[in-house]
UniProtKB/TrEMBL annotation, chains A, B:
One of its GO terms (molecular function) is hydrolase activity. The keyword Hydrolase applies. Residues 49-190 form the Glycosyl hydrolase family 78 alpha-rhamnosidase N-terminal domain. Residues 1-20 form the signal peptide. PROSITE patterns: PROKAR_LIPOPROTEIN. This is Glycoside hydrolase.
Length: 545, 545
């Protein structure tokens, strides 16, 4: 970045600060300084590819492709490549970092440049299918194919882009007929800020649970960079929803609380001038929030994350410092709840992105009510821990009123299921959020969750993000066996399909599900799917027996 | 390049040196050191694009495309680019160097990466036609299209590849729908080792001659890098044939004799173990000759270049140092001449690449005889200048014998034209080399050259390289008017078609001529076409009147 741009950005910021009122005033600067102060050092590890593979069509495999071993990697290093033209290599694990390779002539002087296309895949299909058909919803530049000109040989080439991958397809697009060459010394300088070694699960634990835990730890580790990223391939940045679940996982594994602290400060420092949190922060080249990205429940989940952080660390100083932010987010509920205690769904939808899940047909009125109650309750607990309950003295009454409203307006006593006032869709999300918010009793929750499995046309979860809340709701209702079974079936299902890290989107019945209508752009190492780590370690009596 | 590769190369070299006899022994090391010592410093100049252009189809224009002005460059810098998607810019002149550009958001935080394709063209057609159809003869990687991922915004991107271009087409291949951006601050850090300012031609000189001279100087300047390159786009390296003509041009313009000296030393230092010169040298990552690239007349033209260098500089020390190389090259003629004084064309063809021109159908027996005699004569002159004629005492008799053999076997007295013994093709090349070698009298030469213009099925020159020798032969025969007319028609013809620098291949009747069956891979700034600079300035009485 040029100095002039930095200077312009600074000017814009100063201008805004001068003419608009900034809710947090001088706190903001100090919060950003603290975020910088707690920025973790990355651990760099040199990783080498293990073998040459073929990615072959296979109807039985995930997304209809599988990797088949061809030969050890050394076979490539001595192979004249000019007529070979294409090869795929396998690092044997998911990596996030900088890839480099070397080229050398097999004998004759290299008289002309080489041109390669390198395609990086977290899963086999990514290096097999064409990216050409992607109609941009997200930037096509997230897809990890790079074209490289190597203007002289021998040379070592390091791609300037940080990549997330296990497989690399190397295609030769240009070469001189006057010499042949080897590709050799391929490596990835892999990076993560996860430096602690999580405690091992006891040997006696079910092997599948151990596998799920291992893949969950890998997922979290790969997403732990200088922030908790949502995914190291895409979007490579901090989202509050991912932060919430990553911090949960971290609390029970790596226990690197400074990273959570950094993220909490970063989000606070980059909140909008009215004091509301933006859902996502981009770190490079200078940290800033994504404008206009107000995501309703993510702003509220910040408070829950802060409370969890306090419980895990006892760091009163930080949490008191950030308490004004949590307190302000409560206004999101206060200003959007109707007199009858129901959230004003139509109004919220106008001002906020209401997410909950990548599930286009999900009707979100009930989850909105649920997450709002959940956030108020957790925020009140936070206030109590800080001795600040007087500052939010309206919360208990407000919470009760909203619970009553939910029970009165959203609960079908006959079916035992919660449905909206505007749409009678029966969804997992609705039941889950009514349970997590304590609108239901344990028994009612159990009934609702059980009913889901025998009801037709249910809207089921589309992502591990929603599935996390499903597992939690099962546990909250005392459905421990079902919780374990669901966790093993869902996350174990990804492992059975070859996952090295857990995915952004997973539907056991559809390998090609994609929030972006193009499954190769999905993130296959996605933070919000790491939470088996949390469940397995928080509830050993359920998952380790 | 890694140290281990450098070490391996050194080992190979030492091994060869230990087990094979090296004709030049210890001289080689010292020659390479001197080549390094005279490596010129590059002059770097920041250049900015002038305007936005459209490259539009136009049947009247060179290669059926022309650049049409659209707007000043500033209009681009303030233009939101996301929906614009494609633009072409014009630097207004041919440049060789490193291109960079910056991107910045138009306002909203940039939340995703950008992907661009940048295509660099020396001529308009290069940025208009697709490169996909190129069937590799040379490396496709020479074609100057680069795909660039810009992982965060704002950012300044510098392409790692040195490029040669006037036009750049920028295509947006990927962007996020959540922000727009500007491209701005485009520049090229242009480089050349030409630092001297050649003398201006008098104002009274014919404007077309002045234009040709200016474009010739630009061509030479762009090719003057750390060696005399053949072309800064392709092959970016030193060939003896190009060196010969560039040094001629340099002697009458930039007068940077150290560059000639460096190239002479480099070629000597990298000659093969038997003492024969290889035709071409690649500088990076470590200087080395292209193996097996023995080009008959290029090896001999080294001697002529050395003689010209001595005449231009009086640098006896260098030329005496390199005299063993020139002396050894004479064996190429001695070992390939038959008892009757004719070159053994069939034998030479087996061991050497006989080039003369990019002209597939050219029959090369007569030019081979001619260039051999020419080289012997020039080498003898060199020996005389050094006082070494006793070391090559056989040359005068050998030369005479070969001239007589040519007149006896290759001359058709009736037509006044030279033709081969194996093929009766009438070519410019045959007449030209018989004249340059002094096989003909002036009158005979004039008759031959004149006859060419009225004879059917003549093989005419395919490149400015051959055309250089044509102009010289016209001058040598006293056909001054014809020389001027030919120079103006041929090189002026390129200017009329829009040339900023002179081209590798030019046929006034065919814009699509290509030695590689794909005209976009032609070099459009090619050293061997710079020699109008030499003619105009060496022969002011012909060209400046």
């Amino acid at each position: 970045m040029t100095k002039s741009i930095l200077f312009s950005l600074t000017l814009v910021f100063i201008t805004i600060a001068c003419f608009a009122q900034d809710y947090y005033g001088n706190n903001r600067k100090q919060w950003l300084q603290k975020a910088e102060q707690y920025k973790p050092k990355l651990i760099i590890t040199e990783k080498k590819p293990l073998k040459v593979v073929d990615i072959v069509p296979d109807t039985q495999s995930f997304q209809k492709y599988k990797a088949v071993d061809v030969s050890p990697i050394d076979s490539l290093y001595s192979m004249p490549f000019r007529l070979k033209k294409e090869i795929t290599i396998d690092f044997g694990e998911h990596l996030t970092g900088y890839f480099s390779f070397s080229v050398r002539s097999t004998g004759l002087a290299a008289d002309g440049p080489l041109r390669f296309k390198l395609t990086f895949g977290e899963v086999p299909s990514e290096v097999a299918v064409s990216f050409d058909s992607y109609k941009e919803g997200l930037s096509r530049a997230w897809l990890q194919d790079e074209v490289v000109s190597v203007m002289y040989v021998p040379q070592t080439v390091t791609l300037p882009r940080r990549l997330a991958f296990r497989y690399i397809k190397i295609e030769l697009l240009g070469s001189s007929p006057y010499y042949d060459f080897n590709i050799h010394d391929m490596k990835c300088m892999a990076q993560t800020s996860a430096k602690n070694i999580p405690e091992e699960l006891p040997q006696a634990v079910d092997p599948m649970i151990r596998k799920i835990d291992r893949v969950g730890l890998n997922t979290l580790k790969e997403c732990m960079q200088t922030v908790y990223e949502d995914g190291p391939k895409r979007d490579q940045r901090l989202w509050i929803g991912d932060l919430y679940l990553e911090a949960l996982g971290n609390n029970y594994s790596y226990k690197q609380y400074d990273l959570t602290k950094r993220c909490l400060y970063l989000l606070a420092g980059l909140s909008d001038l009215n004091g509301y949190l933006l859902a996502t922060v981009i770190e490079n080249p200078v940290p800033r929030a994504q404008d206009k990205q107000f995501l309703y429940e993510y702003a509220l989940l910040y408070n829950v994350t802060l409370k969890d952080y306090l419980e895990a660390t006892g760091d009163m100083e930080t949490v008191k410092d950030l308490w004004p932010v949590a307190k302000k987010q409560l206004d999101i509920v206060r200003t959007n709840v109707k007199a009858n205690g129901l959230m004003d769904f139509e109004k919220v939808k106008k001002d906020w992105w209401v997410f909950f899940d990548w599930k286009e047909d999900l009707y979100k009125e009930v989850p909105l009510q649920g997450v709002s109650i959940f956030a108020l309750k957790e925020s009140y607990k936070l206030a109590q821990l800080l001795g600040k309950e007087k500052e939010v003295a309206d919360l208990p009454a407000l919470t009760n009123k909203m619970i009553k409203a939910a029970r009165k307006n959203l609960y079908n006593r006959k079916t035992g299921l919660f449905v909206g006032t505007g749409d009678k869709q029966i969804s997992y999300a609705s039941q889950i959020w009514m349970i997590l918010s304590g609108v239901t009793s344990k028994a009612e929750g159990k009934k609702a969750l059980s009913a889901l499995t025998t009801t037709q046309d249910v809207c089921y979860p589309g992502t591990p993000y929603m599935y996390h809340y499903y597992i939690q709701s099962l546990i909250d209702c005392g459905m421990n066996l079902e919780a374990k079974e669901a966790l093993v079936n869902y996350w174990g299902g990804m492992i059975a399909k070859g996952a090295d890290t857990f995915w952004e989107a997973y539907d056991p019945t559809n390998d090609f599900i994609s929030p972006y209508d193009f499954y190769p752009i999905n993130s296959y190492c996605h933070a919000w799917s790491c939470t088996p780590v949390y469940f397995i370690r928080k509830y050993p009596e359920i998952f380790q027996k």
